UniProtKB/TrEMBL annotation:
GO terms for molecular function: protein-cysteine S-palmitoyltransferase activity. PANTHER family: PALMITOYLTRANSFERASE ZDHHC16 (PTHR12246). Residues 1-28 are annotated as: Disordered. The lineage of its organism: Eukaryota, Sar, Stramenopiles, Ochrophyta, Bacillariophyta. This is Palmitoyltransferase. It is a multi-pass membrane protein. Its EC number is 2.3.1.225. One of its GO terms (cellular component) is membrane. Residues 1-20 have a biased composition (Polar residues). Keywords: Acyltransferase, Membrane, Transferase, Transmembrane, Transmembrane helix. Its main location: membrane. Signal peptide: none annotated. The chain crosses the membrane at residues 115-137, 143-160, 236-256, 268-289. It catalyses: L-cysteinyl-[protein] + hexadecanoyl-CoA = S-hexadecanoyl-L-cysteinyl-[protein] + CoA.
Length: 390
């Protein structure tokens, strides 16, 4: 196992949405916040603090680290052992309070697809309808209150996951993206996107609706009004799981009442029974659709082939030639505790650059020097071992 750290994004980049801008927050405040939230013990002498400037669009002007040695206010830290991390104070997120999918927009939202906006709103309407129907069953004493509370909780989690999937950047590739040092050493040439005119990581695709290249893009989902990629796949899976659970829960509840309950106390109110009938058809459709999508996502995780790539391989009859590796669950749900897997919160990846398939100039330079130092250290240790044997 290599001794250099995976990337600075293990803590810093994966939580950039929670960081204050480096131009307005003090390093001591950031260090104290990180120390309290993740329990990290940070050595102030090894704290990386870069002096970035920003243009009028809020985009960072990346300094030339190769020629300008004054761009960094601190030198490179020591080589980390496996499991150790360093903190990156650079916040590469835009500062403007605006909605859109462009790189300079502050909040990710696809507003250019009217059909997708309608379908995403329809999801909220139908889920709200089902929650109101079950609440009315509880009020009219058609079902016990605890059963109604459980269904309302499941609906809330499904809608929260839907909101996170729709409003989370799916893994768009920034214009300043560059290949990782490992990729650069393995191949002298790399793919470029003809639309974005930027580096195109492996398994990424250009979405014509979002007008961005998305890392490990599975597909563009109109029900989410967003792409499903490396950064929001967890939220999409949670939405499918909670929606499937809501549909199965309702069908079992209605089926038990219809087939096994002969007591008048559990008969539905005459005003609510029509709502229940319509909800039954809705739950059957939702159950079948989410079951199909869950099997599709599971197949993609087990084979490492997304929906778009799978359709392309089937069209060219090259599925048997696939050499993709299965996607580890930590690259979907993060390295946080298992209790975070069922919550619609952003995952923290152990190696953000590896998961996304690209790096940024300021991180790449450090990674190059880390790998060179690690390689030199390994050569020296190997030479010392040879001398001892002789």
């Amino acid at each position: 196992m290599s001794s250099y750290p995976e990337t600075s994004s293990e803590i810093g980049t994966a939580s950039t949405t929670h960081q204050a801008s480096s131009s307005s927050s003090s390093p001591s405040l950031l260090r104290s916040c990180l120390s309290r939230t993740c329990g990290c013990q940070i050595d102030p002498s090894e704290y990386l603090d870069y002096k970035f400037k920003y243009n009028k669009n809020g985009e960072a002007i990346i300094p030339d680290f190769t020629n300008d040695t004054t761009s960094a206010s601190s030198s490179l830290p020591r080589i980390r052992n496996p499991g150790e991390h360093y903190i990156d104070s650079h916040n590469d997120q835009p500062f403007s309070f605006s909605f859109g999918t462009a790189e300079e927009k502050g909040i990710w939202m696809n507003s250019g697809d009217q059909a997708g906006s309608i379908m995403a709103s329809l999801v909220w309407l139908l889920m709200t309808y089902s929650a109101v129907t079950v609440t009315l069953l509880t009020v009219t004493e058609g079902i016990p209150p605890i059963l109604g509370m459980i269904y309302t909780f499941l609906c809330t989690m499904a809608l929260a996951s839907h909101a996170k999937t729709s409003l989370t950047d799916p893994g768009s590739v920034p214009r300043a993206a560059v290949p990782m040092e490992e990729q650069r050493r393995e191949s002298p040439s790399h793919s470029m996107c003809g639309q974005c005119q930027t580096f195109k990581p492996l398994m990424s695709h250009h979405c014509r609706i979002c007008n961005r290249c998305v890392s490990r893009m599975d597909h563009h989902c109109p029900w989410m009004n967003n792409c499903v990629g490396a950064a929001n796949l967890k939220h999409f899976i949670l939405f499918l799981i909670y929606t499937w659970t809501c549909a199965a829960y309702s069908l079992v509840l209605f089926g038990w009442n219809y087939f096994f309950c002969a007591d008048e106390d559990c008969t539905f109110h005459v005003l609510v029974i029509h709502l229940v009938r319509a909800m039954t058809f809705l739950c059957i459709g939702a159950f079948l659709f989410t079951s199909s999508m869950l099997m599709n996502v599971t197949y993609g995780l087990m084979t490492g082939i997304g929906t778009i790539d799978r359709l392309k391989k089937k069209a060219t009859n090259t599925m048997s030639q696939s050499d993709e590796e299965p996607i580890p669950l930590k690259d979907v749900f993060g390295i946080g505790g298992y209790h975070t897997w069922l919550l619609p919160v952003d995952p923290v990846f152990d190696d953000y650059d590896r998961v996304m398939g690209y790096s940024m100039p300021q991180r790449l330079l450090r990674e190059q020097q880390f790998m060179e130092q690690a390689s030199l250290k390994a050569q020296m240790e190997g030479g010392a071992g040879t001398v001892e044997m002789t």
